[in-house]
């Protein structure tokens, strides 16, 4: 007997929403995260029933979902509440680029769109290979400091670190990126960044605008090459901090653009 496919899906985070839209399966979505910005039409078409660590369980239950999809152990309490109500829940915990691709295949197969998911993965894998080819032409790989949050300082998560390497950079906090939780990526002492002497600083402060001037004015940071040469950039968090198609398309493209510009036009600031 053929298993029935989920027809009423609630997405607790942006990436399953983007994936389902990219697969042409958006009609299955009945609720989304309020933080969803990709694709933009989802915000107009779908009711918002969740933040990130909180959700309106009563609103979700009213939608009668046959599947709720989310991301991160930080959503464990939401998942537990829904499971107690008898709802089928899928929470993924992808942290690496290959896991992001695997998650696309998983969700695609769950909704009967396996071939479309394979095509999307092939497209995103092509982006990765193109970025690698561009990076191979660099005469030197710049040292890159990626800041996910400013107070406290939090360095980039693992897939960001991997994308920096794919784009041709060297993540100065690559060791920290191996930790799945943000607590162990907190930089308590600025001397750690200063000593690494990054040549590019990228900020992606989730929920607020990156402030290059504020970063440059931190005590001792004037000794960092990136500050001295005005190599401070912002990548909007929806492009890089969501473990879905955005990170492997627009997010990676922004990283490549920044690094390629550094290699060809040092001392200039990009308007991203």
Major β-sheet annotation: 6 strands, mixed
Mean pLDDT: 94
Strand portion, in percent?
15-25%
What's the count of strands? Answer: 11
CATH topology of the largest domain: Rossmann fold
Count of the separate structural domains: 2
Rg, alpha carbons: 20 Å
CATH class of the largest domain: Alpha Beta
User: Residue ranges: pLDDT <50 for 5 or more in a row?
Assistant: 265-272
Total of DSSP H or I helical runs spanning 4+ residues? 13
Characteristic key phrases:
6-stranded mixed beta sheet, alpha/beta, Iron complex transport system substrate-binding protein, about 270 residues, globular, coiled coil, about 45% helix, Rossmann fold, 13 helices, disordered C terminus, ABC_transptr_periplasmic_BD, Vitamin_B12-ABC_binding
Report on the architecture of this protein.
The protein is an alpha/beta fold and 272 residues long. The protein folds into 2 domains: 9-93, Rossmann fold (3-Layer(aba) Sandwich); 139-264, Rossmann fold, CATH 3.40.50. 44% of the residues lie in helices and 15% in strands. It contains 13 helices and 11 strands. The protein has helices at 14-22, 40-45, 57-62, 76-84, 97-110, 114-136, 158-167, 174-177, 191-196, 212-216, 225-228, 237-240, 245-264, and strands at residues 9-11, 29-33, 48-50, 67-71, 89-92, 143-149, 153-155, 170-171, 186-187, 200-203, 232-234. The strands form 2 sheets. Strands 6, 7, 8, 9, 10 and 11 form a 6-stranded mixed sheet that branches. The chain is globular. 45% of the residues are buried.
